[in-house]
Amino acid sequence: MPRASLHTLGCRLSQSETAMLADTLTRQGYRLVEFGKETDLLVLNTCSVTENAEKDCRYAVRKTLRHSPNAFVAVTGCYAQTGAAQLQSVPGIDLIVGTQYKMNLPEYLPAPDQLRKQPEPELRHSRTIDREDFVLPGTAYSDSTRALLKIQDGCDFMCSFCLIPFARGRERSRVAEDVLREARELAGHGYKELVLTGVNIGRYSHHGMELVDLIREIEAIPEVIRIRISSIEPTTVPPELLRHMAASTKLCRYLHIPLQSGDDHILQAMNRRYTVRDYEDLIDQAFRLMPDLGLGTDLMVGFPGEDEQAFANTRHTVDRLPFSYCHVFSYSSRPGTAATRLEHKIPAAVIRQRSKTLAELSRSKALAFYQRHIGRTESVLFEQGDRDGFRTGTTGNFTRVAVPAETVAAGSIHPVTITGVMDGLAYGHLAAPSAIHSRRPLL
Ligand code: SF4
């Protein structure tokens, strides 16, 4: 049986696509092996968001060919779309597949017994990418207790720093029946949490069905226990979605809403579609309905023109808002994006210092969020593996909770009373279901 190893260098959406490709390859007779182990085929799903995409890709190819010199290497993903020309000069690559053809990659492979290194890579690539709603060829099984369910792709927003609209193309939604087909299969397979993923999932729209309608349909599947929304743009969260989240028995009270900057001039230069006030109003509405909401965000530091005042505005905005964590990114110029033409670039040392400041602020906000849970009893979905004798899992609002590993099994959901917080983790002990604080236990 030929072996296939798959590796993702990108985001959650790419991970769900890799899992889907793995499913197709398994059905074609491949045996999956862990990345880093000997293999006959390597599929690399790349990212183009950071400057290191090419370096990461070269490294992964070299690492694989060291232990498997004859492995056939196929590269796909965002960097295969935006950096196909550069990838053609990376030694050891046999096939490059752009975004348009990504999910058909298994069709372009030679028959498993014909896998051979090629003198030069074959290129399957088109500059333009379909706008049609789509179906996917399989089911994205993962080795986690939660499964990623792709519902959307592409983005029309054209933020001035972002390469994703070029790498993934215009907005399109997955056909609702196909989403429901996969949701049923994943839930039937035992996944306790489905995470809805896409590039701009708030823009989901298929034959009049919007995101909240799709969520209702998924909730109607009896085997589905928990649903979580991944990152969602602030301008795409309608009040109806917040009301539904507040009332639902299955949708986690959790939102990750990128803020990027707390300064209106910078937001405008980023071509973001909201002001700081708009963002604060949205968060205010959400917390009025769900005081226990878990709220994450992305912050970008060092965008061209971010002067001391603009950064101070971001710091104060972050300080004011009830975030439970912030992902802090440094701006890096991506060739082809509008922001590369902007003046007033910020020196790397200043960017480092600002990142550090926001990361510290994020840590103190996370601590305050966690401490608010002490004494509460919440239902926790436990994950694989243990950390120094503790098994960890997450609540609906994405608080990470640890209990002694021997007291719970991976993949189970239990009520836990939280007794303390240390090193970014809440600790607790198992409790009776009747003790759960949330109005809806998400069990
Ligand atoms: S919303 Fe902006 S940052 Fe997000 S994918 Fe679209 S263009 Fe990129």
UniProtKB/TrEMBL annotation:
Residues 371-432 form the TRAM domain. Residues 2-114 form the MTTase N-terminal domain. Its cofactor is [4Fe-4S] cluster. Its EC number is 2.8.4.3. The keyword Calcium does not apply. It is an enzyme of class 2 (transferase). Residues 141-368 form the Radical SAM core domain. Gene3D superfamilies: Methylthiotransferase, N-terminal domain (3.40.50.12160), tm_1862 like domain (3.80.30.20). InterPro entries: Elp3/MiaA/NifB-like_rSAM, Methylthiotransferase, Methylthiotransferase_CS, Methylthiotransferase_N, Methylthiotransferase_N_sf, MiaB-like_bact, rSAM, rSAM_horseshoe. Keywords: 4Fe-4S, Iron, Iron-sulfur, Metal-binding, S-adenosyl-L-methionine, Transferase. It comes from the Bacteria. Catalyzes the methylthiolation of N6-(dimethylallyl)adenosine (i(6)A), leading to the formation of 2-methylthio-N6-(dimethylallyl)adenosine (ms(2)i(6)A) at position 37 in tRNAs that read codons beginning with uridine. This is tRNA-2-methylthio-N(6)-dimethylallyladenosine synthase. It comes from Nitrospira defluvii.
